[in-house]
Amino acid sequence: MPKQITQYGRRWYAIHTYSGYEENVAENLKRRIESYDMGDKVFNIIVPKEKKIKIKNGKRKLVEEKIFPGYVLVEMFVTDDSWYMVRNTPNVTGFIGTGNTPTPVSEEEMKNLQKRMAVEAPQYNIDVSVGQAIKIADGPLKGFEGKVMEIDQEKGKVKVIVSMFGRETPVELDSLQIKKL
């Protein structure tokens, strides 16, 4: 237990957890806040996540990924008893900071993180242009090279001309399936 913790006021702190246990730690903390009657010292607990577009089995999926795997953010007043309660939650390895003194997350960083978490659906970011040479990185035509003919920004699709069997063939691909050459 720390000797003396300076009171910073109500701030956000990052706690390190065993990877994969972030949700478990958040749930345990919520239960411990009730059982230790710490509702006046520990206010919010979040596992920062954002939505991303991934391709799985050739299909586009919207998945939620942890922004900082192995970390949970806690809004709290740091006192000896609140520090002890959070620090001794199962699967918590410690606060981010020096020694026993937690370092608060800056307000600017928290605002940026909350904006990032609030995005409902990620935008398609197609960073190729018409006429550009590309390589197909995923799907049945993986390894083929081609040239961009059309870009559909809304759907995240790209029409590419690929040379197969001595012929130029137009192919529509997901923008995540191609890489610039």
Explain the overall architecture.
With 181 residues, this protein is an alpha+beta fold. It is 19% helix and 40% strand. The chain has three helices and 13 strands. The chain has helices at 22-35, 80-87, 107-118, and strands at 11-17, 42-46, 49-56, 59-66, 71-76, 92-95, 97-98, 101-102, 133-136, 145-152, 157-164, 167-174, 178-180. The strands form four sheets. A five-stranded antiparallel sheet has the order 12-11-10-9-13, with no helix packed on it. The chain has a four-stranded antiparallel sheet with strand order 2-5-1-6, covered by helices on one side. Strand 11 (157-164) and strand 12 (167-174) form a beta hairpin. The longest helix is centred in the N-terminal third of the chain and has 14 residues, at 22-35. Residues 1-6 have low confidence and may be disordered.
Helix content: 10-25%
Taking Cα atoms only, what radius of gyration do you get, to the nearest Å?
24 Å
Number of helices: 3
**Which structural class do you get from the secondary structure elements?**
alpha+beta
Low confidence ranges: 1-6
Oligomeric state: single chain
Write the layout of secondary structure elements.
Layout: E1 11-17, H1 22-35, E2 42-46, E3 49-56, E4 59-66, E5 71-76, H2 80-87, E6 92-95, E7 97-98, E8 101-102, H3 107-118, E9 133-136, E10 145-152, E11 157-164, E12 167-174, E13 178-180
What would you say about this model in short?
The protein has helices spanning 22-35, 80-87, 107-118, and strands at residues 11-17, 42-46, 49-56, 59-66, 71-76, 92-95, 97-98, 101-102, 133-136, 145-152, 157-164, 167-174, 178-180. It is of the alpha+beta class and 181 residues long.
